Amino acid sequence: MRLNPKKCAFGVSSGQFLGQIVNKRGIEPSPSKMEALRNMLDPRTHRDVRVLTGQITALSRFISRSSDCCKPFFQGIRNNDGNIWRPKQREVFEQLKKCLASPLTLTIPKQGEPLYLYMAVTEIAVSAVLLREENLIQQLIFYVSKCLIEAEKRYPLAEKLVSALLTVKRKLRPYFETHTIIVLTTQPIRTVMSKPDLSGRVTKWAIKFGAFDIRYQPRTAQKGQAQWELYVDRPSNHAGAGVRVIFSSPEGVDLKYSMRLDFLASNNVAEYEALVFGLQLAWMLKVRRLAVHSDSRLIVS
Questions:
Q1: Same domain (yes/no): 184, 125
Q2: How many other C-beta atoms are found inside a 10 Å radius of the C-beta of residue 281?
Q3: What is the dihedral of CA 193, 194, 195, 199, to 10 degrees?
Q4: Are residues 214 and 232 both part of a single domain?
Q5: What is the CATH number of the domain that holds 125?
Q6: How confident is residue 190, by pLDDT bands cut at 50, 70 and 90?
Q7: Is the pTM value of this prediction over 0.70?
């Protein structure tokens, strides 16, 4: 094996590698790719839209939730009237250009330091961001985003997050192999993977994570962030007594749980059982701040 001198560079302070600029500040996108996307005119044909989404994909590690960003463009392609570029698509495109106008620099982690992972789930995609922390300041390392297929869209929320973690592990395997990954989440991912009655797919996922040092921590609420909301109710149930609770997370995600009572109960008793059930779930979810809503003033007081 011999090196090609024309393709090698030694002792340089900055250089282009795999279409990205690597320097002492970190990793930056290629200026030519950024300029091409910023100067791109509004797409007029399906081919123009595919070129646009391809350029976004090439810069996806620098763009938060790139899959969600591309959704309006694909919706435009599916319009029956042939109008692929509407005000919604134009608005998203302009927001993307503004995002690219600011400096996009990703940092390089130090060997052995713990890294932090945040994940988000929408109806169509899962996204994640990998960070490092230095002097209490979090610095970006990598954005990851993936569109959900139809079967994945029907997963429960916690399973979607486990699937998102698996996607991140596949794309960022070198980071998982050399660093401790701390997953910050409001969902009981560890509990989902440790249940004895797991579905087959979750069992396979849990086994794949066993070779890595992955830790889970509750995602603490930031100052000014909304608290969790708990709604307790006794749904209509002619076969017997049942209760239902709904959690609303600070991110606007609703978690619905129900429980059947083995005895006939009045409305107040049923709502009391629902409240106890909800508080137990809140403890399992490690909820710190919780506002309870109920039709029964007796129960709430």
A1: yes
A2: 17
A3: 30
A4: no
A5: 3.10.20.370
A6: confident
A7: no
- Per cent of the chain over pLDDT 70 is 83
Q: In this structure, is residue 2 part of a structural domain?
A: no
CATH of the domain at 265: 3.30.420.10
Q: Is the dihedral of CA 128, 131, 136, 137 positive or negative?
A: negative
Query: What residues contact 218, with CB distance under 8 A and at least 6 apart?
Result: 184, 185, 186, 286, 288
51 and 94 fall within a common domain? yes
Strand-pair partners of 259: 243
Structural domain including 263 reads 228-300
pLDDT bucket at 241, cuts 50 / 70 / 90: low
Q: Are residues 272 and 190 in the same domain?
A: no
Number of other CB atoms surrounding residue 295 within 10 Å: 12
Q: What is the pLDDT confidence band of residue 64, given thresholds at 50, 70 and 90?
A: confident
Cβ–Cβ under 8 Å, residues 125 and 148: yes
What pairing do the DSSP bridges indicate for beta strands 254-260 and 214-218?
A: unpaired
Q: What pLDDT, on a 0 to 100 scale, did the predictor assign at position 244?
A: 77
- For the beta sheet containing 242-248, the strands, ordered from the edge strand earlier in sequence to the opposite edge, are 254-260, 242-248, 228-233, 290-293
Residue 148: pLDDT band (50, 70, 90) is: confident
Greatest CA separation for the chain: 83
**Ranges of H-type helices in the chain:** 31-38, 46-58, 66-77, 87-101, 150-153, 157-171, 173-178, 189-194, 200-209, 267-284, 297-300
Task: Please give the average per-residue pLDDT across 75-85, as a whole number.
Answer: 70
Listed residue (123, 113, 101, 114) closest to 34, CA to CA: 101
Q: Which of 178-187, 192-201, 229-238, 282-291 has the highest mean pLDDT?
A: 178-187
Q: Is residue 110 domain-resident?
A: no
Listed residues 218, 244, 276: the one ending a domain: 218
Indicate the range of 93-107, 173-187, 214-228, 273-287 predicted with least confidence.
214-228
214 shares a domain with 119: yes
